[in-house]
Amino acid sequence: MRRPHNPGSRAVTAALAAAVTIGAALPVSAAAAPAARNAAQVDQLPFTVDSSNQAGWWKPLDVVGGVTYVAYNAPGPTAATHEVHVAARGADGDWTDGCLRFADGSCATFADDNGHNQPSIVVDGAGHVHAFVSMHHEQWNYFRTTTPGDVTSLVDVSAQMPDQDLAITYPVTARGTDGDVYVMARAGADQRQARTGNLYRFDTSAGRWSRVAVVADAPAHSFYPDDLKVGTDGRVHVLWEWGPWPADPSRHLGSYAVYDPADGSFRDVTGSALATPITPSTPGAVIYQPYTAGEEIGSYWPALQTAKLAVHGDTLDGIAYRFRTEGVTAFDGYDVRYARWDGAAWQRETVLDLAGLGPGVETSAAIETTSAGATTRVYAVVETTSCVTGQQSAVVRAERVRGESTWRFGTVGEPRAGAQRLSAVTAPTGTDQLYVTVPSAGQLFHAALPRTGGTPDGTTAAQLVADLRGEATRINVARGADVTVSSTLRADTGGELAVDGSCTDASRWISALDDAQPVLTADWGTPTAVDTVRVRSGYSKATGTADVLRAFSVELHTADGWVPVGQVSGNTQGTVTLTFPAATADQVRLLVTDPSASATDVARVYEVEALAVDG
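Above: the chain's sequence. Below: its structure in token form.
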């Protein structure tokens, strides 16, 4: 694909003198400056989380009476195990932490199961903390405090739950306006080749659990709980998605209903009554994300994964969710969408469009949305891979005034190396409180993002991602250019990978073994003033520098033909920057004379960049 740019105005001399700067080796990671003023107050909690402390569906955060409660997996006593802890921060800012305990007084310990075995909590109207933990298609693991608000008094009361014969997964929680609490979970019905969605209620005054309903059930389908939120009128908003039985990372048919505890009814978004259990073919306005062309229940893609509700007062504001039209693995290619009911139909829009954000950008299975005051917010985790900052992730806030169409973007906290996961709740003041975990680093953060004093500064999604990638304002005209190469090692190491903006090992041009002097040419089509060429090469897993290009020269194609702009020999650096007097060119050519010092003597090139002159 050719990208047009305005041509430069400087003439080209017969020979250009090259000033060569040898850059640092390809970086692993670096912190990028936030794209917008960060109005959030972010604090790291004084606890170490286990590497298993990651999920997209959980409810690990609650805020009641000015006290913040967080649940997390802590490292267990042996490898591949974790304990479950709940911590509370009072008005004085001090944290109290306690592990969940079995009947013998020992800290409850479970086997790691990333993405499944995480805790969801909720505080009832009497101040008791309820914790549902570490269940992946197994019987209840349920703990409750013996003393209200005391996180050191959580004990195992699993036997008090209904449906002791069912296997439970993905519990999500909510507190009713009357102080009762709800939990929704997937329940095994494998003998029927189905897994159902069950809603349970704890009567705080009676101290007893009951099953409210089997919300949804369908043969050959599995129910995936996404979210529960209670409106100011006491109605429970219920969100889920469907997958094929028994389980699948790609899900479909994002669905929404409302449970009214006053009369025990379920209704769709229009208020029409729904018979339970709800199925994928139940009449009514239940499905906010229907099948798209070519999609079915067993499709790898298109697919849905992870969704959250924004309830404003007693009304649904919208649903934030991840959806992909295609992908390579089970977890990539997911845009962030937002669905709203306009009174007649579900309207869907894309908040974060990966195709428009360039290569090396993904969202992870972590999303949240809130609505209060005049603004709606969608929180997501954006992961970037770039030649400047390496691999990192950032919690991104998309915010807009209700009734408007434009989203403004900003980051919450600093970018981090490694994946992040999040959850959020809105306090009565309108301040969003966020739970952010970086499991690979053992870190847990708490953030507060107020809605007072006006909304925070914002930017576009494209600029935010550019900042995260560490991209300068200068344009790389070689990015996305048409490429020809003298050879390739394999079909998946083609020359186009050297101009895609990604510096991962899976995105390199690698020449053939019998090509002693490999050549790459990138043609961007429109003559443009260029004064810098950067060549990035090597192999990130190498312990030395044998895999970088050892010797090469660079030429630009101008109105006078091919003109040399730099020559390098004896190189041991991953990044080489060539600067020279500006030349108006439409192509760049890399001529390698010594591919590497490794036993497999091939050219390994992450990127060839040609930077346009500013202005």
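The CA atoms of residues 420 and 438 lie 5 Å apart.
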